[in-house]
Structure formats: structure tokens, C-alpha cells
Design goal:
Blueprint lengths: L1 E7 L20 H5 L12 E3 L2 E6 L11 H8 L5 H5 L20 H7 L4 E3 L5 H10 L4 H8 L7 H5 L11 H5 L10 H11 L5 E6 L1 H8 L2 H21 L4 E6 L18 E6 L15 H8 L1
Parallel strand pairs: 1-5, 1-6, 4-5
Antiparallel strand pairs: 2-3, 3-7, 6-7
Helix pairs in contact: 9-11, 10-11
Length: about 300
């Protein structure tokens, strides 16, 4: 059995109004998550043996708006990161919670179970130069490195073994002048599914939703959600019966474009496949890593 963990940054369940891009479209896979309901606060829980959808808490009992550093550290460890440092913090991991992305991380715990892990995102050379200079790794890249995983580069991308953060490789072509082909969201999904033959746990991070939320850009939000919705829809339809897909977020943002800040909204938790029942009682983003480990 393999688990595909899809981390989508800055997506909450908001009110169905003109400021919410999900109010204007179902965006394919997002609608499938809720069994055809609107992807808003009106969506009821779906609790079935092979399909669980729940709105879960990202505030974790700490005042203030949830942030990426603490939210992601919680998602990837199952520990209450903002409680440890008594605040929400981001976008990079606070020194007081970096240990959660090492021995207590999802990757490290899965490896102790004898499972093979892979972080699917690829990074251009400019990224490596920048982080070496600043010495500021993101939660996902820090966790991968602490687990001894090699971060993917252009080489793995060209082999079809990795994905860019924005799925289609278009940004690498236009902004970085990298010699890589543009691919469809469906082709990107096939890359992920192919890797389930080699790895037990796969992680992909999508951050453009958070970027569109901060920019309050409805057009970009619709573009990004359309691409990701197609990606999800293909994964859901083409995955094997032995694969469980888990999706969640670190905080709300893009669902309310009336503000450029994060939100207090609950975030989606989806589990689709034979391990879905392990998430039926989830209440917060702290329950994501434990559910994945039980599935594995």
C-alpha cells in the first residue's frame, strides 16, 4: 500500500460569496473531494470506508492567524508546533520547532517503519544558491534533508521522476529559461502514480494557491485552481486500489480574497483509498501525520 500526500498551501473552506474562487467553479478534483458539494463551509463531512472529507482546525488553540512555519511543522509531525513556541510563526520554521522536522517528522517515522519515502518537488539551481546563502530552508525541504532524501533538481525533472511546484513546468520554461517541456496536469499526475511503484510514501507541495491569496488575485486563483483541480481529478480516477491519497493544508487564505492575510477558516482534509478510515475521527491538522502512519 502506498500513500500520496498532497500538501496544498493556503487553502481553507470559506463562505460561498464573491470573494471565494470556489464559489464560482467546482474546479474538478476539488468538487470530487466533497462528493459533489460546494467546496465551502457549507460542505458536510463525508465519512465512508474509502472516502473521508472533513474540515479540520488549523488554529490549534493559539490566538492569531495560522502561519506556514508552524502549520507545516504540525502537518508533518503530528505535534502542536504553535503551542510549543506559544505563537503562530512563518513562513520558515522557527528554531524552536525545527526538531519536529527531524526525528519526529513524517518521513523519519515512516522510514523507521521500513517505508521508502520521496519528496516529489524539484528545485532549480537558483533555489539552492539562495538557500545556501541565507541558510533558510522551508519546512518541506528541511524535513526531506533531515531524512536523508536528496532534493530533486532539473536532472530528475527531465527524467520524469519529479514535479515542479506549479505542476506544468511552464514557470521553469518562461521564468528560468530551463529546457524542459510543458506538461499537462494529467501528465503530471501520471508521474506521481508511476512513482507509487517504487515508493511507499510520496509528498508533493503546491504553493501557488497561497501566493494568489496574498495577492488577492481572482484571475490567478482561478488559473491555479483549474490546473490543480485537473491534476487531482486524474489522480483520483487513475490511482490503483492499493493507493491512498491524503490532502490537507496549513491554513486558509485563497478562499477569501477580500483580505491578503491568512484566515481562521478550517482547512480541508481528504483521504481517498483503503486507508481513508484512519482519518474518520480527525479534528485538526495534528491528525494528518498519525493517520498516514497508521495507513502505512
Amino acid at each position: 500500500m502506498s500513500v500520496i500526500f498532497l500538501f496544498i498551501d493556503g487553502v481553507g473552506l470559506g463562505e460561498g460569496n464573491e470573494h471565494n474562487p470556489f464559489h464560482h467553479s467546482g474546479y474538478g478534483g476539488f468538487s470530487a473531494m466533497t462528493a459533489g458539494q460546494a467546496f465551502t463551509t457549507s460542505a458536510a463531512e463525508v465519512i465512508e470506508r474509502d472516502h473521508v472529507f472533513k474540515p479540520v482546525d488549523a488554529t490549534l488553540g493559539i490566538e492569531g492567524l495560522p502561519q506556514s512555519g508552524t502549520g507545516q511543522a504540525t502537518l508533518f509531525s503530528g505535534k502542536n508546533a504553535p503551542q510549543i513556541i506559544s505563537k503562530h510563526f512563518g513562513p520558515f520554521p522557527h528554531s524552536g520547532i525545527k526538531h519536529l522536522l527531524s526525528d519526529e517528522s513524517l518521513f523519519s517515522k515512516a522510514q523507521k517503519l521500513g517505508k521508502r519515502c520521496q519528496f516529489l518537488n524539484a528545485y532549480p539551481e537558483i533555489f539552492f544558491k539562495r538557500v545556501r546563502r541565507r541558510k533558510r530552508w522551508t519546512c518541506t525541504t528541511l524535513m526531506a534533508q533531515k531524512a536523508g532524501l536528496k532534493l530533486n533538481s532539473t536532472e530528475e525533472l527531465k527524467k520524469g521522476e519529479a514535479l515542479t511546484a506549479e505542476i506544468t513546468q511552464e514557470a521553469w520554461r518562461k521564468q528560468l529559461n530551463e529546457d524542459v517541456p510543458k506538461i499537462s496536469p494529467e501528465e503530471a499526475a501520471e508521474r506521481v502514480l508511476n512513482q507509487t511503484n517504487t515508493f511507499d510514501l510520496l509528498l508533493h507541495e503546491y504553493y501557488l494557491t497561497d501566493k494568489a491569496g496574498h495577492a488577492r488575485d481572482m484571475k490567478k486563483a482561478a488559473e491555479y485552481l483549474t490546473i490543480y483541480g485537473r491534476f487531482l481529478e486524474h489522480l483520483f480516477k487513475q490511482k490503483s486500489e492499493e493507493v491512498t491519497i491524503v490532502l490537507s493544508s496549513d491554513h486558509g487564505n485563497v478562499e477569501d480574497l477580500s483580505t491578503k492575510t491568512h484566515t481562521l477558516n478550517k482547512v480541508p482534509l481528504l483521504a481517498l483509498g483503503p486507508g481513508a478510515h484512519h482519518f474518520a475521527k480527525a479534528e485538526s491538522i495534528m491528525d494528518v501525520t498519525p493517520g498516514i502512519l497508521r495507513t502505512l
